[in-house]
Specification:
The protein has about 425 residues and is an alpha+beta fold. Helix content is about 15%, strand content about 35%. The longest helix has about 35 residues.
Length: about 425
């Protein structure tokens, strides 16, 4: 026989359980309301800020410094370099955020004292309902300056960070939203940006300022992008503009590993000592081979800096394969200026220079010398003169000047250039 035991529950136990449930619900509601109230107080805090083409990053830093808030965002989603403007005087923080952020497509959410930023991916329809911006498959073609397909071009959505590359036919496909900015980049070409739309046809132009540069390599000339050996190329715009005595003075300090010294001090008639690849021989010449307009063994003292078109330095051993063992220490190729098709052209350049003594050796004066003779420190006879022999060696009236006049011109089949140079170096 089975018996069921029934335990009676009193009314006060039921009321006790109900009271605890009501109390918990009240505490949770109060906590939620309190948190919402504190967030509302932060947004209603009055601030004063003036913005005039200020980057969004600087705006965030100013708001964090003057208010007890912190901004959280992703650099891939938020462009903090965009410029904003506005003058806010004693305005609530939410008004500033609405005008500065939401007007630029940035939404925000306040959690405690942290403001989380995100992109606004919503559009407002005609009936006032917010709808998500649709993601579309954007496709197109990238070609070069000759309208030929350009494979391997990187296409990046600057708003989302997504990227892809073109195929062998120059075609690409990428998921993006209307209004997203796409970046097209390729080595040796100028980067372009374009708003996302279907059927894009992008033409990239070469970066001629770097890849169009021509380098003399011994056999002839090559584009700098085709050179594989160690070559330094120096143009007139990179020359030292200090009035040179020697053609190599213009590239002193411009080529790594090239050492140019003047062993005879400031003697204007002395040559220079050049070392390019270090000590490469014991008995032979350690100076690099000089080649002027393709002729080896040229005299640098006969070349003026105004007549030089460019200087190329072959620093590795490849020069020996062209010019033989005389190029073991490297090769310096000098290309002079030539006439260009067109009417006759006159070019005149000049410079004037004066030199001063910077450090003078500490010698005894005539009076000090006599004192040492009188005390017996120096056994010498006083001849009664006070000549400063060191000062007599210094040319205080030195004034160096250089004048160069060139005539150039030519046609499509021939060209000419002649120059007259006057140089007085002291």
């Amino acid at each position: 026989m089975k018996f069921k035991l029934r335990v009676p529950i009193s009314w006060w136990q039921i009321m006790k359980i109900t009271f605890i449930q009501v109390l918990l619900a009240t505490m949770i509601t109060g906590t939620t309301y309190s948190s919402s109230l504190k967030a509302q107080d932060v947004l209603n805090e009055k601030i004063t800020i003036s913005l005039n083409n200020t980057s969004l990053l600087d705006v965030i830093k100013q708001l964090q410094k003057s208010n007890n808030i912190r901004f959280i965002y992703s650099k891939n989603a938020i462009n903090v370099s965009q410029l904003v403007s506005g003058d806010f005087k004693n305005r609530p923080l939410k008004d500033v955020l609405n005008e500065v952020l939401k007007s630029n497509g940035i939404d925000y959410e306040l959690i405690k004292n942290r403001i989380i930023l995100g992109r606004t991916d919503k559009q407002i329809s005609d009936n006032g309902i917010a709808t998500a911006t649709p993601v579309k498959n954007i496709s197109g073609t990238v070609v070069d300056e000759k309208d030929l397909p350009l494979p391997g071009v990187t296409i990046k959505d600057t708003n989302t960070g997504k990227s892809t590359v073109t195929d062998i036919s120059g075609k690409f496909s990428l998921d993006a939203k209307d209004g997203d900015v796409l970046s097209f980049s390729f080595v040796g070409y100028v980067t372009q940006t374009q708003k996302a739309s279907n059927g894009l046809n992008i033409k990239l132009l070469p970066a001629s300022e770097s890849l169009g540069e021509v380098v003399v390599i011994g056999y002839g000339t090559q584009g700098i992008k085709e050179v594989t050996s160690s070559v330094a190329h120096v143009e007139p715009k990179e020359f030292r503009q200090s009035g040179s005595r020697n053609a190599l003075d213009v590239i002193q300090g411009k080529v790594p590993g090239l050492t140019i010294t003047r062993t005879s001090g400031t003697n204007p008639n002395s040559g220079v000592s050049v070392q390019l690849r270090g000590a490469v021989t014991v008995t032979g010449s350690a100076s690099p081979l000089i080649v002027i307009d393709g002729i080896p063994g040229g005299n640098l003292d006969l070349i003026q800096q105004d007549d030089i078109e460019s200087i190329d330095v072959l620093k590795d051993g490849s020069g020996a394969a062209i010019y033989g063992t005389s190029a073991n220490a490297g090769v310096i190729l000098i290309t002079t200026k030539k006439g260009k098709p067109g009417p006759p052209r006159f070019d005149y350049s000049s410079y004037v220079r004066k030199e001063y003594l910077q450090r003078r050796p500490d010698f005894l004066t005539a009076d000090e010398f006599r004192q040492h003779i009188a005390t017996g420190d120096i056994l010498q006879k006083d001849f009664g003169h006070s000549t400063d022999f060191f000062d007599g060696l210094i040319n205080h009236g030195n004034l160096s000047q250089n004048h160069n006049l060139a005539l150039s011109g030519g046609t499509d089949k021939s060209n000419y250039r002649a120059s007259i140079n006057y140089r007085d170096v002291q």
